[in-house]
């Protein structure tokens, strides 16, 4: 049950702030689309390199594949090195630094392969492809040079020895040719010695040649191969900006931020907005939720527009008051509020009208001697009113009839210097008993609870107290203090009227169906009254 209540509260928050959420979502999406449209398109071209491990009989196939993958990872880190980037910039004459070029180059090893992909981003698609291909070619060339440098010194040493032996062989052959055919024993001995030396030189030369070729073969077999597997092609579609994706992400982000902001505002907002807020804060039921009247609309909505949802809300209030007084009849009702400007006088006037329309003889007392309003609402002269009745000890000639059949009003009269003493006097109790005998319902409009002691004094003589709170404006602590003040004097606070509930924001004005529902519900006489009052208001 608690989870259902929490979910309902969350949904109410979302409904109350639906326009903020939709607005932020649309604004964020529109801004992202406009910004993305203004950005220059960026193209990406990719060249692919293949890494082949040098053939060796010392490792198995799995180890060879694993070694190739690691070698590819190593090469991927070397591609963006300064030697490669500087060579590419020099060859292509690019007007940028190594650091700027590296930021536009992305190198990745394709998973579970020996392939390296080199991607370059640029606003010019053809230039992006050229840079990618140049990077691949330069890297292959530099890698081959590094591989060959391992045996370069040894091969150069063998090459030098071979050249030296070739020179000695030529010189020895020339010396033998110069000796010609030996005639003496000494000449024969010299010739035999030179032939022996020549044979040694030739044998050594053959050995050096064999060593040289063997080293070349070893260098070839132990050199890893890096080749261009696929050259980069000129791209046709840009990779950035992605207008649709950016717009969608901005919309989602805007919605998330606005939803978060709505919940933060709700968390920081300490006003009473819903019947659930009233129940959790005050422990009191909400007897009715009264919709906000339109600007310039007659506050006596029960007579001006009896078919409106707001009028039906007062009928709901009238019915709920009856149900809350089964064991203890609520003949004398006090209507008050925690603070000023919360619509208590309007609620009292319309509630009294609703009771009179239900066939109850009703009297409405304006006990707010500090700021009386009821005589202005009904267009009556204040006369002596309640103050005069208390001083004279009688209401004779002071009750004023209204256009509503069965409803009389006792205005506040002249403002006394001591309203609390008058309202708490014995004569006030005697006046209450007099009105009890003459009327079925007595409705008192008192000053706000937190303004003075008037409401607390009147609460002691009333059968029930209605607390009017302004939806979205009355603070929880103020309402809590008002209820505690009334209960401390023994007042019977029967419930809360949630007043001025927004009618266009979902969440807590869910009590009332649409206006046309009631047009077929009431009798023809009440329809005629409603039409008559609307015509009079338009006139």
What does this structure look like?
With 539 residues, the chain is α/β, with parallel strands linked by helices. The protein has helices at 2-16, 18-38, 61-79, 82-92, 98-103, 125-179, 185-221, 243-268, 275-282, 301-304, 309-323, 344-357, 374-378, 385-392, 419-423, 426-438, 454-461, 476-488, 524-538, and strands at 43-52, 105-109, 115-122, 225-230, 286-291, 332-336, 362-366, 400-401, 407-410, 441-445, 464-470, 493-501. The strands form two sheets. Strands 5-12-11-6-10-7-9-8 form an eight-stranded mixed β-sheet, with helices on both faces. The protein has a four-stranded antiparallel β-sheet with strand order 2-3-1-4. Helix 2 runs antiparallel to helix 8 (243-268), helix 4 packs across helix 6 and helix 6 packs antiparallel against helix 7. The longest helix has 55 residues, at 125-179. The radius of gyration is 51 Å and the shape is rod-shaped. The model is unreliable at 505-539 (pLDDT under 50).
């Amino acid at each position: 049950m608690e989870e259902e209540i929490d979910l309902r509260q969350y949904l109410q928050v979302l409904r109350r702030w639906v326009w903020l959420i939709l607005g932020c979502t649309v604004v964020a999406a529109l801004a992202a689309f406009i910004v993305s449209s203004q950005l220059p398109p960026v193209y990406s071209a990719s060249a692919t390199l293949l890494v082949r491990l040098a053939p060796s009989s010392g490792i198995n196939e799995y180890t060879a594949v694993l070694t190739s993958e690691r070698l590819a990872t190593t090469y991927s880190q070397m591609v963006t090195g300064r030697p490669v980037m500087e060579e590419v910039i020099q060859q292509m004459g690019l007007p940028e630094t190594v650091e700027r070029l590296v930021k536009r180059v992305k190198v990745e090893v394709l998973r579970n392969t020996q392939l390296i992909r080199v991607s370059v981003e640029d606003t010019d698609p053809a230039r992006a492809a050229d840079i990618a291909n140049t990077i691949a070619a330069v890297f292959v060339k530099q890698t081959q040079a590094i591989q060959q440098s391992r045996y370069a010194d040894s091969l150069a040493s063998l090459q030098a020895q071979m050249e030296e032996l070739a020179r000695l062989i030529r010189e020895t052959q020339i010396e033998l040719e110069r000796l010609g055919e030996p005639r003496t024993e000494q000449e024969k001995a010299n010739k035999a010695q030179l032939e022996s030396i020549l044979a040694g030189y030739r044998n050594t030369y053959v050995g050096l040649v064999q060593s040289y070729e063997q080293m070349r073969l070893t260098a070839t077999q132990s050199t890893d191969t890096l080749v261009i597997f696929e050259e980069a092609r000129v791209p046709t579609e840009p990779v950035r900006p992605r207008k649709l994706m950016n717009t969608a992400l901005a919309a989602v982000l805007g919605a998330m931020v606005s939803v978060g902001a709505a919940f933060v505002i709700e968390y920081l907002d300490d006003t009473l907005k819903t019947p659930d807020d009233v129940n959790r804060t005050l422990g009191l039921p909400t007897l009715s939720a009264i919709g906000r009247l339109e600007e310039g609309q007659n506050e006596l909505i029960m007579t001006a527009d009896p078919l409106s949802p707001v009028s039906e809300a007062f009928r709901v209030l009238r019915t709920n008051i009856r149900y809350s007084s089964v064991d203890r009849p609520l003949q004398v009702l006090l209507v008050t509020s925690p603070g000023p400007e919360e619509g208590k006088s309007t609620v009292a006037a319309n509630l009294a009208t609703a009771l009179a329309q239900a066939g109850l003889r009703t009297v409405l007392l304006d006990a707010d001697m500090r700021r009386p309003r009821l005589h202005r609402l009904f267009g009556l002269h204040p006369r002596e009113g309640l103050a005069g009745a208390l001083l004279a000890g009688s209401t004779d000639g002071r009750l004023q009839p209204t256009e509503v059949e069965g409803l009389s009003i006792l205005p506040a009269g002249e403002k006394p210097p001591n309203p609390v003493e008058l309202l708490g006097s014995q004569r006030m109790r005697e006046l209450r008993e007099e009105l009890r005998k003459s009327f079925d319902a007595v409705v008192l409009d008192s000053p706000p609870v937190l303004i003075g002691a008037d409401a607390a004094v009147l609460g002691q003589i009333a059968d029930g107290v209605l607390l009017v709170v302004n939806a979205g404006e009355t603070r929880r602590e103020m309402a809590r203090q008002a209820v505690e003040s009334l209960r401390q004097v023994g007042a019977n606070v029967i419930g809360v009227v949630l007043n001025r509930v927004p009618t266009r924001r979902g969440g807590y004005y869910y009590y009332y169906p649409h206006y046309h529902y009631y047009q077929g519900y009431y009798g023809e006489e009440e329809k005629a009254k409603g039409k008559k009052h609307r015509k009079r208001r338009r006139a």
